[in-house]
């Protein structure tokens, strides 16, 4: 500040004093003048380039204010007056504390960022990025909310997050084969920002693509090096296809789990960027995984509803994997109950919620980690979808056969009295549904006729159809029967179900997409219902219905998804005045509940059909015997029961089941997930298989053990029911959990009653 | 491992500016805002031509003393922003940029320190928009020569990226950093 330096001119009145101006040290380098006011206090007058200001102690400050003289109030000046004999020089009498006016205190913080990593370039021309393809201008989108975990990160990481250019700018850098929709751009950024995420977009909105691109961006920023994808077996080829489409540079850096699964899971080579394993393979390594320490950078689990049961082996294996980032993809996170969501979050963010967390708390906690968009909410131009429930009228003969079978079945059920179980009812339902598909006497099928009526037009116009059925074999009037009939009419068709070997499925899907001569694909819900892209078809037939509407929706979305260019026609068949019509009514009710729970975040209600509902399908008068609640007695038999050893207790339970006509296998030693006994017997055409868990203990049985048993029941389709037998009782929570499920709770009272009824002695 | 080209959004005949390919340009952004308490803040960001950051630095809030406020008078703002903050930030940069963008005409004089083409960059307001105008940006350099160079850079880049957007990122980052410092 030249003007200050050049014009520095300190003056002082004729006071022969030594002045100490410690409190005003920083005025020393300016033009200043010391003077004494009328009250004999000392003041300093400073001259700035614009005005004159008095720096004064309180007494003179008031006067300055009164006369309008700019003044600064300061502490009273400390002045020491000493008579001096010799006139000193100015510098000797005024102690000057020099502080530069440029003493602005500031510190600097700096952060340097690495540029994005460059992707491996493929050697083959078909996947080389077309020049200019990355020039796609992507529309700007609103930024997702700050990720909840960001606040715990270092300042450097937070600044990196803030300073990263907007996602639409970053995506414009990539060679993408198509421009993502705005909601997808948002979803990519949302995933990119989160270490723990559940992307729960409705089917067909491109969850796989969003996950691939978000992972690609993380890889480019060197935040991750390797990705493990866990998906159903049927979706492996789809993941490969989508990876090659949205991240073509890694086409030769993808590894798929083979027979040496342990080696595969540990594999950390830099040239393997994406590893893919199916749930079934992973499940086999569940026990081994529990003791492993290796970790992945990012794990993506597709169709995350596969881990909705916390007790299932699959769920436990997935949760044994170590990783720093966890993404789950599913179209139906709350497919049945909020419990499923809790289990899925057991993988995504294990510490966040548990089964004891209140439902309202769960919803609040998980909200920042879930992103769900519905097709009708997002702005995409999917072709229209026309869904129709088609009421099929059976011909007279078919109707009569059906009626006769149903009447006979109901009589049989009523004859069972209190020994009736849900399994008996299921057996009749399945039998009747098969009859609805094809008449067992004449072979007629009104449903097939309806398809054939439309098939000619579909085929001739170069369109394709998907036909879904729950049944596969020819004998049950399933897909193989439909295939036979369609082939007889000259249509080229494919089938995709559990009977088609895994290695044939990808070529089938590929050919269905490209081969114009193929008119239809016949699929069962389980194999063809999830994850596949079958947009080549725009007619969807549900030949018979599934109990869970979410499963039906999944099936329909195979055709009605991004990439579909034609209107989609969905025909959902049900036969008039049959069990199908009655089930449909139940389905409609469940669909209403489903929307309430998932889309409006209302409190979850039970979505499973209760035992009562199943029995009401046939207006059955009988109900299974249920033990009424009784006060616990501590009689001699009770005491004997409690004093038994665990093996004696198991033997007692096995005896009771044997006396009921079951073939009993005690699993001692193998002990599959807590199952102690497997009991089987035939009931008419159906086979009942009961998984029995025995627990000989004093304390009441809680919910977790029942969840484990329920996991076994739902994982194994051949098991019709799970029975939990204990020498004690069940907690209220456990009873609540079992309510409406195919679980039977047998406490000490009920066990004693059964022992008496079937004449099994309870011996010490 | 083979790598993909830096960016193929540019045409094969990539334009040359300041003796470099456009994609080799290094941009620098500087902001010197004041917070609610009138403390002076400052941040600088160096980016590639696609505004991907290489470097970000900021200074702690500068609070002039009463005497500094009085004695510098109306020259205080430019003095603190240019001679104190910008100078300090520019002394610490890891690489010399080819061009500097500021968001405030008051700090355009920073050109005297960095000696590189410098311009104040803003989005055109709707009132300013002319029907035949090609650029959506307003830019003002302190010399005709700089004005021309910056005009060329903007003409090539503004269709690919938003050149003004980095200022908002920098402000947000500055807010985050200061908030962290204060807690």
Keywords:
heterodimer, A: 764 residues, alpha/beta, Rossmann fold, 4 domains, 7-stranded parallel beta sheet, 6-stranded parallel beta sheet, globular, B: 183 residues, Nucleotidyltransferase, domain 5, 6-stranded mixed beta sheet, 8 strands
Q: What does this protein structure show overall?
A:
The complex is a heterodimer of chains A (764) and B (183). Chain A has 764 residues and is an alpha/beta fold. Chain A has 4 domains: 2-93, no CATH class; 130-371, 3-Layer(aba) Sandwich (Rossmann fold), CATH 3.40.50.10810; 385-393 and 443-600, P-loop containing nucleotide triphosphate hydrolases (Rossmann fold); 636-757, 3-Layer(aba) Sandwich (Trna Endonuclease, Chain: A, domain 1). In chain A, 37% of the residues lie in helices and 17% in strands. Chain A contains 28 helices and 26 strands. Chain A is globular, with a radius of gyration of 39 Å. Chain B is of the alpha/beta class and 183 residues long. Chain B has helices spanning 66-72, 76-91, 111-114, 144-157, 165-182; strands spanning 16-17, 20-21, 27-31, 40-47, 53-62, 99-102, 118-123, 137-141. In chain B, the strands form 2 sheets. A 6-stranded mixed beta sheet of chain B has the order 5-4-3-6-7-8, sandwiched between helices. In chain B, a hairpin with a 2-residue loop joins strand 1 and strand 2. The longest helix of chain B has 18 residues, at 165-182. At the A-B interface, strand 8, helix 4 and helix 5 of A face strand 5, helix 1, helix 2 and helix 5 of B. Strand 8 of chain A pairs antiparallel with strand 5 of chain B, so a sheet runs across the interface.
